[in-house]
Amino acid sequence: MYQLLVVDDEAKIREVIREYAEFDGYEVTEAEDGMTAIGLVKLNDYDLIILDIMMPKLDGFSTCKEIRKLKDIPIIMLSARGEEYDKLFGFELGIDDYIVKPFSPKELMARVNAVLTRRNSGGKANSDVMKFKGLEINIPARTVTVDGKRIDLTPKEYELLFYLIENRDIALSRDKLLSDIWGYDFFGDDRTIDTHIKNLRNALGPYRDFIVTLRGVGYKFETHE
C-alpha cells in the first residue's frame, strides 16, 4: 500500500485529500507545516508527498529543497497562485507536478496515480520514449522536444498531449477530454479544451497538424505514418 504525506496548513484541505486518497487505497500521514514534514521524512519512507507552497514556518519551496537533500520522493505541489514563475521554479526544484487551488480532488488523485506509475516504470525508459518524425515525448522524464529542441509545456498541456497520443487515431470528444483530464468535478466548458489545444499546436510548431480538429466532435492525434 502506497504511503502519502500530505503537507498543508489548512486542515480542511488535508481532510479532503485524506478522504479521497484512503478511498483509493492509500495510507495518509498529515503535516501542517514544512518543519513537521521534514521531521517526518527523516523518520519515515513515503511514496509521494503532496506539498502546499504557502505555509507558516517554512514555505513549500524551502521544504522541497530540504526534502530533496534527504530523499528522492515524488512531490506534487499545491498553490493558490498560478503564476508561471512559481510553476517553473517548482519544476526547477525537481517537483513532479503542480496543481493550482482550488482543485478537483479526483484530478489530484489521478495525478498522484500518474506520478507513481511513471516513477515505477522508470526502468523502462526506452519503451517510454515516443517519436513521431521530429516530435519526441519522453514519458519518464516528462519532456517534449521538437526537432531536438525542448519545449516548455504546462502540466495540463503535457497531460493533454500525452492523452491524445495514447489514444492516437481515435476521435475524442471535448466532453471526454474534460472528464478524463480535468475530472468530473471540474467546472469548465469547451473553450478550456480549445484554448489548451491552441497552445499545444503553437508549441509543436511544424508538427501542429498532428492534432486534427474533428468538426462537431473534438480532436484526435494523427501522424499519417
UniProtKB/TrEMBL annotation:
Q: Which Gene3D superfamilies match?
A: 3.40.50.2300, 6.10.250.690, Winged helix-like DNA-binding domain superfamily/Winged helix DNA-binding domain
Annotated SMART domains:
REC, Trans_reg_C
Ordered alphabetically, the record's keywords are:
DNA-binding, Phosphoprotein, Transcription, Transcription regulation, Two-component regulatory system
Which molecular function term from Gene Ontology is one that the record holds?
phosphorelay response regulator activity
Start and end residues of each Response regulatory domain: 3-116
- Cellular component, GO annotation: cytosol; protein-DNA complex
The family database entries (SUPFAM superfamilies) matched by this protein are listed as: CheY-like (SSF52172)
Q: Which residues carry this modification: 4-aspartylphosphate?
A: 52
| InterPro entries linked | CheY-like_superfamily, OmpR/PhoB-type_DNA-bd, Sig_transdc_resp-reg_receiver, WalR-like, WH-like_DNA-bd_sf
The alphabetized list of GO BP terms reads: regulation of DNA-templated transcription
What region holds the OmpR/PhoB-type domain? 127-223
Q: Identify the DNA-binding region of this protein by residue numbers.
A: 127-223
Q: What does this protein do?
A: May play the central regulatory role in sporulation. It may be an element of the effector pathway responsible for the activation of sporulation genes in response to nutritional stress. Spo0A may act in concert with spo0H (a sigma factor) to control the expression of some genes that are critical to the sporulation process.
The name of this protein is Stage 0 sporulation protein A homolog
Species: Eubacterium pyruvativorans
